[in-house]
Amino acid sequence: MDLSLSTRNVSGPSGDRTVVEVGGEIDVYTAPKLREQLVELVNDGSYHLVVDMEGVDFLDSTGLGVLVGGLKRVRAHEGSLRLVCNQERILKIFRITGLTKVFPIHTSVEEAVAAED
């Protein structure tokens, strides 16, 4: 399985957000593609990101590492990284690793965009 990525800008009550829609599998083979996308967005000045993981079928530790790295990058610029996910098998990974305490996880893009920083 491959990884699909697309980005779009959305305005919310707290300002503009860049939504990264992710589809497929985030694993040791595809995670570098996501890492490059996040680095490029931050380098271009997008510091408030929403990663939409509704289309993600699989997530491994490499993918988690990329998300944590993205969070560190945006926080270095006083930014935020929010996740959108309501698939139980993916949410379970965040719970087991304790990352639910690190990432704000929302059930929809609209909810994530509307959330205060």
Automatic annotation (TrEMBL):
**Entry keywords, A to Z:** Phosphoprotein
List the InterPro entries: Anti-sigma_ant, STAS_dom, STAS_dom_sf
Note the CDD domains from the entry.
Answer: STAS_anti-anti-sigma_factors (cd07043)
Q: Does this entry carry the keyword Nuclease? A: no
UniProt keyword Cytoplasm present? no
Q: Which Pfam families match?
A: STAS
Which PROSITE patterns would you find in this protein's record?
STAS
Q: Which GO terms describe its molecular function?
A: anti-sigma factor antagonist activity
Q: Where is each STAS domain found?
A: 19-116
- Which family does this protein fall into? Belongs to the anti-sigma-factor antagonist family.
The record's listing under NCBIfam families reads:
ant_ant_sig (TIGR00377)
Q: What does this protein do?
A: Positive regulator of sigma-B activity. Non-phosphorylated RsbV binds to RsbW, preventing its association with sigma-B. When phosphorylated, releases RsbW, which is then free to complex with and inactivate sigma-B.
- This chain belongs to the protein called Anti-sigma factor antagonist
Q: Which organism is it from?
A: Streptomyces coryli
Encoding gene per record? bldG
